[in-house]
Amino acid sequence: MNKVSLIALFPLFIAFHATAQTYHPDFECSRVSPSNSIAHLLCDDSDSAKQELIFDQTYYALRQQVGRAGWQSLKKEVIEDQKSNAQCLQGAPDTNGRQDVDPTCFQNETEKLTEKYKQRLSGPALEEANRPIDEHIALQKRLAELGFLPSNTKIDGVYGSSVRQAIETWQRVNNRPLVNGFISDDDAGILNGNGNNEDRQINNELNSSNISGYKTDTSTKKADLSPFHIIFLLILIIFGIIFLYIYMLPTIFAVKRGNENIGMVAFINLLLGWTLFGWCVALFMAGTMQRKEK
């Protein structure tokens, strides 16, 4: 099956995957505090976990966009905004301090918060946030299959720091125009379809090395000439022409003067012109030898 067929069938795979998918939060449920009502909801209710994953994906896209300098302020803002989930608590706490949570209320509040943060995204970050969570899960799984993520990585569709590093490595290996840790729509299309022999060779190298320190060797990869390369080649050609003109200047001078021994001048020019002495001798002969009579 060729790449075009694989890409064409990918949306069908996503749709099938979505119908059979059970969602889990991006944390370990076994470590949840007995009194954390929201966390227990996410561990027990797949739909609530899915909505939380969608928010988390948007949050981590914004986190990547603002950069390390804005992480702390963004985290504080999210903690403050998520206090609105308190209105979804129902009834009195049990002996563990845990309360029931209305799943529909939680999902609606989380969706509102997701849209709020999505408004601040742009470019590839916004393309990420607009992508269904099931496709993010499939893309993250694809990165693991290609060796850019450890095989034991938890596949949840949320791109934390380690996943961002893996995305940047994949972008460098595949000579993507932007190495920014975001999976743009164009990146997603290529990531879904790159299963050729060259990729498998790269994967073997990645599996035997540390991905975070992986250095891309592009010497064997074919790439189109960039404008910089074209300009550089033109400069080399121009300098080559100038050098050739200067090198053959004695012969050219002899031809223009119509010297009798043009052949001798050309012979010395070609044979010894690469030395300063030989070039000067040829130029001297071209300027002093008698001209042909007309």
TrEMBL record:
UniProt entry keywords in alphabetical sequence: Membrane, Signal, Transmembrane, Transmembrane helix
InterPro entries listed in its UniProt record: Peptidoglycan-bd-like (IPR002477), PGBD-like_sf (IPR036365), PGBDSf (IPR036366), Phage_imm (IPR016410)
Domain of life: Bacteria
Residues that span the membrane, as ranges: 228-250, 262-286
Pfam families: Imm_superinfect (PF14373), PG_binding_1 (PF01471)
All copies of domain Peptidoglycan binding-like, residue ranges: 137-181
Signal sequence range: 1-20
Protein name stated in the entry: Superinfection immunity protein
